Amino acid sequence: MARSVVSEIKRDHIQKLISKGRRLDGRAWDEFRPISIETNYIESAEGSARVRIGNTDVLVGVKMIVGTPFADTPNKGVLSTNAELIPMGSPSFEAGPPDENSIELARVVDRGLRESQMIDLEKLCMEEGKEVWMNFVDIYVLDYDGNLFDAAFLGAVAALKSAVVPMKANEKGEDFPMPIRSLPISCTAVQIENSILLDPTLDEEKVASARLTVTTDENGDLRAMQKGLIGALTIDQVKGVVETSQRVGKELRKLLG
Amino acid sequence: MGGNSNVKLIDDNGIRIDGRKVDELRNIKIEAGVLKNADGSAYVEIGKNKVLAAVYGPRECHPRHMQNPAKAIVQVKYNMISFSVSDRKRPGPDRRSVEISKIISEAMEYVVFTENYPRTSIDVFIEVLQANAGTRCAGLTAASVALADAGIPMKDLVPAIAVGKVNDQVVLDLNKEEDNFGQADVPMAMIPRTGEVLLLQMDGHLTYDEFQHALELGTKACEVVYEKQKDALRRRYKVENEEAPAEAETQNQEA
Amino acid sequence: MNNENVRPSREVVLPGDLLDSGRLKPGSGAYAVDGKVYAAQLGIKSVKSNFVNVIPLGGRYIPIQGDMVIGKVEDIGPSNWLIDINSPYPAPLHVTEVPWKVEFGDTSRFLNVGDTIMAKVLMVDETKRVQVTMKEQGLRKLQGGQVIEISHSKVPRVIGKGGSMIQMIKNHTNCRIFIGQNGRIWLDGDIDNMMVAIRAIRMIEEGAQMSHLTEKVKEYLDTAMPKSEPQAEGTN
After folding, report:
1. Rg for chain B (alpha carbons), in Å?
2. Among B142, B137, B108, CA closest to B122
3. C180: which of A252, B18, B235, C70 fits an S-S bond (Cβ 3.0–4.6 Å)?
4. Quick check: A95 and B36 CB within 8 A?
5. pLDDT, tens digit (0-9, with 9 covering 90-100), for B23-63
6. In CATH terms, is domain B28-235 a member of 1.10.287.130?
7. 3-state SS assignment for residue A24
């Protein structure tokens, strides 16, 4: 595809800026673009959120269905996360079943939700071994300008947090809010040359050699990580991204109210 | 169509369950240019329907064997997101969305001056974010605004609306309950200026008289939707200035 | 349709709007049915001699013979390069159309995938097949600086009347700037000055329909570049 060729001039320019501690859009290396979170955006979902980070725009919805638990977790609800890189979102997204990029995205989001035990899945069990709530988290990318991981994760957390368990509609009793135990936050940084940049734009991602996503909880403890792309990170860079993620994560968590 | 006329959807004063009269539209909101990556885009709300449309192109046609050496092809993809309906819909196309994509593509191909762009594809993506009956009409309405926003040469904008029959009465712009329990559904799209009908489907049961009445209601409603489409585009491209028009200047050379 | 619906000049017209009822002929962006002329495209109505045209406000760049463009090499063959010129049609650049003597199969020694060039649209045939050339003074491979993209329809505003707008930006920022008709703009200069120049261009892009745009851009340049005095009449 024509658009996937990175212009050498752009690459050189981004690198030249970074060597002077600058970014294309004038942000500091550890600064996020403006973030907006709109919850309860879709009435037909049990929970939903539209999240924008700069020009990246994602819509996340949670549907809850009565189902049977897995045999090894008979007293727990089920969580399933799926991401759709729909062709609306970018000229580089193609129609068809999820490719490796959307599967990686969905799995990294899923890991952060699951490992932080954000949802108290035991409270989503109605009858042990028989009847539990199944949560389907679907992420749709409407406009892609970099850092899908954080936009999708923020959207998933906000959508789940706003969800109401549809007991009444399923004749199971009274509705109650989604049982939430923690609010995990992910922060993603990329490496360009030897510099680290938080919340990369698409232009920055295109010239980045490595990417690291770190998901932390309220205590700053680590709950999920994912290193991506073909470059290598130094131990110091890894530690640096973790520490930044702990610090910036605290600020982002406030946006969830 | 459920065809169940026992469900009372219109009261004795002729008022529908959402408070509308039989010939009244739901609230309509249209915005143009709502996405960054797409060459053109639009957002349409009709009642509780929320629909986005994005246009990419004209661009190189893939797969190449679909290229037409004489004109552009218009490929519309209509899709409902999984949580747009009360029961979660599995992501990806189903037979219904393939059919709807086809008829909207055909309607759009009629208005686009495809011969201006041989060998290219004009791709339109319609995503139904929230569905409440009438999504194909909302989708077509959005697609048409998105095409204009993308600067695609076309004969005219195309509005669409559904007409139907509920409790033995012809009504305009069915909501979800009316769609579920009504007796007929007639989605239609037309160019108001010329009266050209570009999309028409019908299911249920209508007498010929009822159908003619339905067409009449639909035609009037299309005029209303058409004005909303134009208003959205005018708001986006408002011109304030009286400065010299943007005539092409001779190219400067680098200093 | 009545004549009342004929829109006055300088107003945005939309596809299907009546432009004229019989006197004028349809020019670009317009079409005629039964002697009436309608807009075929979103844009500004403009009447020139006997023709009514619509100057587009958006849309993709469609190459016209003679246009100066900024292209990106997206593929290499043994005797040509494929250039992305920001239009629906990639444009071949043949080895006979470059200022160097290139042996068969030796193309990558001169231009590589990802390289940026200044080129001229050599020809466009009736099926929109495009060819570009670099065989003209000043056309070359671009190195350093940076390239930004704007809508090609905003290019005339960025250039300004007689080149006045772009000259003002050049004078204030001391940047070298080349504007392609295809909406790509190459700039080079001091990093901070380049950022000021880009912001000024973005202002023009966003405010292309605004009144007193020139004054507003000048105001911005004056505050952003307080030290640099506009140089004496810049020569091109």
Report:
1. 20
2. B108
3. C70
4. no
5. 999 999 999 999 999 999 999 999 999 999 999 999 988 88
6. no
7. coil
Region of poorest pLDDT, from B213-222, C4-13, C38-47, C125-134? C4-13
Span B195-206, pLDDT tens digits: 999 999 999 999
Task: Look up the ipTM and state it.
Answer: 0.94
Give me the domains of chain C, ranges plus CATH numbers.
Answer: 3-56 (2.40.50.100), 68-142 (2.40.50.140), 146-224 (3.30.1370.10)
Q: Which residues pair with C118 in a beta bridge?
A: C70
Question: 3-state DSSP call for residue B57?
Answer: strand
Would the CB atoms of B36 and A87 count as touching at under 8 Å?
no
H-type alpha helices, A74-168:
100-115, 148-162
Looking at the structure of chain A, the number of domains it has is 1
How close A206 gets to chain B, by Cα (Å)? 16
What confidence tier does C126 reach under pLDDT thresholds 50, 70, 90? confident
Look at residue B198 in the predicted model and tell me its pLDDT: 98
Give the Cα separation of A252 and B16 in Å (integer): 46
CATH number for A63? 3.30.230.70
The answer to whether the CB of B97 falls within 8 A of the CB of B84 is: no
Instruction: Give CA–CA dist B145/B165, Å, rounded.
Output: 28
Cβ pair C29, C39 in contact under 8 A: yes
Q: How confident is the model at residue A257 (pLDDT cuts 50, 70, 90)?
A: confident
The answer to whether the CB of B61 falls within 8 A of the CB of B118 is no
DSSP string covering C137-170, please?
A: TT--EE-SSEEEE--GGGHHHHH-GGGHHHHHHH
Backbone phi, psi, residue B15, to 5°: -105, 135
**Which residues does chain B have within 8 Å of residue C171's beta carbon, measured at their own beta carbons?**
none
Q: Of A2, A16, A17, which is closest to C84 when you measure between CB atoms?
A: A2
For A257, residues 6+ apart whose C-beta sits below 8 A from its C-beta are none
Average pLDDT of chain C is 89
Q: Which residue stretches of chain B have pLDDT < 70? A: 1-5, 239-255
Residues of chain C positioned with their CB less than 8 A from the CB of A6: 114
B63: preceding bond cis by omega (within 30 degrees): yes
Of B40, B246, B251, the CB nearest to C181: B251
CA distances to B3, B14, B168, B174, B230 from B8, in Å: 12, 11, 11, 14, 37
Mutation choice for C interface testing from B62, B225, B251 by most C CBs within 10 A: B251
A37 close to A49: Cβ distance less than 8 angstroms: yes
Per CB-CB distance under 8 Å, the chain A contacts of C186 are 9
Tokens of B24: 């009244």
Chain-centroid distance of CA B39 in Å reads 18
Is A3 a member of any domain? no
pTM: 0.93
User: What share of chain A in percent tops pLDDT 70?
Assistant: 98
